[in-house]
Structures are given as C-alpha cells and as structure tokens.
Specification:
By secondary structure, the chain is α+β, with helices and mostly antiparallel strands. The protein has five helices and twelve strands. The strands form four sheets. A five-stranded antiparallel sheet has the order 1-2-3-12-5, with no helix packed on it. A three-stranded antiparallel sheet has the order 8-9-10. The protein has a two-stranded antiparallel ribbon with strand order 4-11.
Amino acid sequence: MFLKQCTAGSVVEFGKYYDQNNVSKEPLKWLVTAVCDGRAQLISEKAVDCRKYHESYTGVTWKECSLRRWLNDDFFRACFEPDEQIRILTTNLPNNAGENTDDKIFLLSVDEVKTIFKDRFERQCRASGYAISNGAALNCYGYCSWWLRSRGRYEFYAGRIDGDGTILGDGHYVDFGSCSVRPVLWLNTELQAPS
C-alpha cells in the first residue's frame, strides 16, 4: 500500500529486516495504528527480534536502557535506507520513570497499549523466525511476549505484554532474555522518497 494513502488498521511495508534468518532481509510489515496531519504511527506486525531490555540486572529507565540505544542505532541503520530514514520523525515521549526522551524508534508504553489495542486478543503477537532463533519464547498457541518502554513495579523491571495479550505492568526483570521486540515509529507520509 502506498504510504500516503494508508489508514488506521491497514498493514504497510516499510524498510527491510531479517525475517526467517540472519542472511537475507525481507520487507518489514507494519500495522498502522494512527494517521493524522500527514503522519502515521506504525508498529511492527510481528515481533522482529528477541533482545533484553537492558544488558545487566540493574535499575534503569527507558532513557538509559540498552534496548533504546539498539533501536535508534543498530536497528535503525540495519532496517532503513537513507531515503527511508529521513521520513521517520523524532517523537517526544513521556515516560513513567525518568525524563522524557526524543526517539526515532521506540516501544509503546502501558497507557499507549491500552489506547491502541481494544483487548488482549489484539495485543497477541507472532514472532519472526529470526526472533525465535534469537531466543523468543512462545506460548502453546505460538504467541510471544513483547517489551513495553514503561518501568515495571521495581526499578529493575520493565513492562511487557504476555503471550496471551495480557498487559503485565509490573513487568519482568530487565535482563530477561526471552522477550521480543515490536518497534514503533511515526512516519512522514507526505515526504516522497527520491526516485
């Protein structure tokens, strides 16, 4: 679907990332969650990878965590060509712990998940083969858990969505190694890529 004409609830392709293996990249599919004023918010249709929220078991905020750095650096450069990168808007994000952050790529907060998805069934998510090969745990129905950027009950916990779609605001310890990642971004739908 042409990005300028995307609507909330549609699925679009933007960027490329590993899907079944770490050898070849495939077009990355995104669910459009909102469209307004020439901008669209996208969340990956599948969990794209399996990564820790932070590399060590310590008190950490979204601003400081290693997953935020990975999303805005390694993933950003690996997934998007330069002409795609300039279409991704910087978003000022409120956080339930620590300072607001300015990010190109981010995770949803607990409050945002409640706004975007009407029930747990909409929050259920499949993981890519690549995420599974990197350790993503699946429940008996084949759904994965995925991180939120919100701090959990303790400073060394981060929120997540369970495999059955339940919001676990209390979260899991930040260096838990089996939780998946669903990147989110705001895209300028008016800016045309150079031909």
